[in-house]
């Protein structure tokens, strides 16, 4: 989704901006732009498409702009107006130039008002373009940067992170934030602003995190932070873990493939982070409330993180006996939810910035709920607002389609489930030891799913599925959640209509889709404790009877029992318990989506229309 980078005081600001924007590429975007001030004039260069196009277009400017010290840049993910050069940021008025993340909800009203001045020209279809005109209007009235910024922001409804430069003040970047993330980078005689710390990682590891309705004037050797009443505010300077965040493909063709292969290591690191296997003890961060008093859990998330939450429901309910409700954040935030004191609210998010999940968290906080967030990004907005944070230790996830973050989230939810079961004496210390050992053994089983034979088989099936126009996945219990998540991965990467259905629900409607052309992936792990295997296979028979083409995902015993009735087979190891069932079969399903997308020549790491971090509603 949209990204902001700005710098003041730098020797080559264009290089800083291009480098920062490239770091944000993984978030998904459709156009990019940059503005610098040269001899009291704006130089604005924008391009639709990849940053490399913008970089090439800037080459002739490099020499001419060598004395500039200030620049702002942006990657845009279209919301208001199609992806195009005109709609790309920065947007500008006569004296003010702005890059913006978020959505200005009342932009049409603001625009009508501004257009009363017939001399104003609007050049784009965006909501953002009202901002430079609005700020300039207040600047003319007040002749004061702080007042112009705060008064303009007071008129805006919606979410925003802004970086603004001014023709008449070529030494300052003004910034403002409400609902969208923004950090200030503190350097030596040069300072920065960005929507994500990664963008600045090559330049500084010292950051200031702005809170909602805070503003700043950033100069090369001074940063002034203030609130809407212009009172100065002190904000701590945080030191980030590592100055140079290395983000590379490590020899893999795509980030997504690398991240799929990283999963056994991520699982191991998460286990090492929270479990001592020597004495089977669990060490989660301190809970500032009494977990024993929790009677119910509500998990809120979006997309893949929502599916991790659904898997968490099955795992927590089975292992700890606590009732778990799961909701999609975009629904939850507008629900009249009956909050109660014995409820624990868990927010699951890779980025920790997803607009709907963040709004839901704030809604729960306003209602005095106990808030636990499970996030991958340490200093994210969700992490800062939560009572307790359990980090998934997946490392940066760059592929837009989530893979390792999903399995890391399920791992953390599983550890939490075992911890809760222990606290309420639902399991004995011996049973806890067995559960933790099974979790620790999951990494080895994941690795088996990534060996050359498996990959060859997956590629063969992918070649077949690349010709298909539809695809169904079915499963029961937590394998049903794997079916949902697998279908989402398939849709995202292949642009083919794939659906995950609870196997038992198939005959209540969706079975009408089954004919000879319909491939159906049946996820049916087989083990002695899994009473649902037979039932899933009955549903597979119903598909078979109608000519559907079955791809069966099961262990050797399961595959043998259904031998002739499946067109393709994917063998998974024997699984011990629900946690392994949630974590193992998803690996070949991620690979399948990946290889079908490759056969279709799609951009695997940045599928069309998608953004890594969805910071608008
Ligand atoms: C799908 C995917 C998305 C995210 C969703 C939530 O592969 O990545 O569905 O899971 O946008 O994002 P986070 O986890 O950052 O809140």
Overall mean pLDDT stands at 93
Strand content: 15-25%
Spatially, the strands of the biggest sheet line up as 3-2-4-1-10-9-11-14
Which structural category do the helix and sheet elements fall into? Answer: alpha/beta
Description:
With 617 residues, the protein is α/β, with parallel strands linked by helices. 37% of the residues lie in helices and 23% in strands. The protein has 20 helices and 26 strands. Helix 5 (130-142) crosses helix 6 (145-154), helix 8 (263-274) runs parallel beside helix 13 and helix 16 packs parallel to helix 20. The radius of gyration is 26 Å and the shape is globular. Bound molecules: fructose -6-phosphate. Fructose -6-phosphate (F6R) is lined by residues 302-305, 349-351, 354, 357, 401-402, 492, 613-614. Residues 302-305, 349-351, 354, 357, 401-402, 492, 613-614 line the site of fructose -6-phosphate.
Name the features.
617 residues, alpha/beta, 8-stranded antiparallel beta sheet, 6-stranded antiparallel beta sheet, 20 helices, globular, binds fructose -6-phosphate
Q: Helices, strands, pairings?
A:
Layout (H helix, E strand, L loop, with lengths): L2 E6 L4 H12 L6 E8 L2 E8 L2 H8 L2 H4 L5 E7 L14 E2 L3 E9 L2 H8 L15 H13 L2 H10 L3 E9 L2 E10 L4 E4 L4 E4 L11 E4 L4 E6 L2 E5 L11 E2 L15 H7 L1 H12 E2 L4 E2 L13 E6 L1 H18 L2 E6 H4 L10 E7 L5 H12 L3 E6 L5 H5 L2 E4 L12 H20 L5 H20 L3 H14 L4 E6 L1 H18 L2 E6 L16 E5 L8 H14 L3 E6 L1 H6 L6 E4 L5 H7 L2 H14 L18
Parallel strand pairs: 17-18, 17-19, 19-20, 20-21, 22-23, 22-24, 24-25, 25-26
Antiparallel strand pairs: 1-4, 1-10, 2-3, 2-4, 5-6, 6-7, 7-8, 8-12, 9-10, 9-11, 11-14, 12-13, 15-16
Helix pairs in contact: 5-6, 8-13, 8-14, 9-13, 9-16, 13-14, 14-19, 15-20, 16-20
The site of fructose -6-phosphate has 14 residues, from α9.
